[in-house]
Amino acid sequence: MEAQKSVDLYIEFLRTRRSIRKYRNEPVPLDLILKVLDVARYAPSARNIQPWEFIVVTDSVVKNRLAEVYPWPQPIRGAPVGIVVICDSKSSPNTYQQDCANSINYIMLAAHAYGLGTVWQGILRDEERLQVQRILNIPSEKVPIAIIAVGWPAEKPEPRSRKPLEEIVYINSYGNRVK
């Protein structure tokens, strides 16, 4: 019974994580960010290469420059902290994107555990990557994957609807829906 309660708590924790785009105007201590990044080190990666590195950005000028990479409003402007996740594409040429996506999820979950809010801003286009590399002096073999805004939440978004399992799960082959 106790084990089931623990499982239920973990599942509820996962279900309550939200993308936070508005933050209180309160600093986040660096030691707390380092605790979050310490958890991210434990994310799974192919062959345990761990191709990720992290740049913690607290300078408002740098955060604004990063926000200007995109045409739409960016939560990084109002967040006390940005974490730029970069990957070594040479050490893990086939899986670096998936490996770093795992570390990003660990960052967001660890931040949630500490009461922080996050939102993941993907760096998808080559032009965006080049701009972020220039802004942060990232070597060319290191690929920026995402900017994560981090801070104390100033909003509590309601859960958004999810597709039913019957619509997204198949048994043994595509089209053989679970009932």
Description of the molecule:
With 179 residues, the chain is α+β, with helices and mostly antiparallel strands. It has one domain (16-168): NADH Oxidase (3-Layer(aba) Sandwich), CATH 3.40.109. 37% of the residues lie in helices and 17% in strands. The chain contains six helices and four strands. It has helices at 2-16, 30-40, 60-67, 96-113, 126-136, 165-168; strands at residues 52-57, 81-88, 117-122, 142-151. It has a four-stranded antiparallel β-sheet, sandwiched between helices. Helix 2 (30-40) packs across helix 4. The longest helix is centred in the middle third of the chain and has 18 residues, at 96-113. It is globular. The two termini are 29 Å apart.
Beta-strand share of residues:
15-25%
Poorly predicted segments = none
If classified by CATH, what would the architecture be? 3-Layer(aba) Sandwich
Which sequence of SSEs, written as H and E, runs from N to C? HHEHEHEHEH
Overall average pLDDT: 94
In CATH, what is the homologous superfamily?
A: NADH Oxidase
What is the terminal separation in angstroms? Answer: 29 Å
Query: Based on CA inertia axes, which overall geometry fits?
Result: globular
Strand order of the largest sheet: 1-2-4-3
Helix-residue proportion: 25-40%
CATH level 1 class label: Alpha Beta
Q: What is the count of β-strands?
A: 4
C-alpha-based Rg, rounded: 18 Å
Count of separate structural domains? 1
CATH fold description: NADH Oxidase
Q: Which structural category fits the helices and strands?
A: alpha+beta
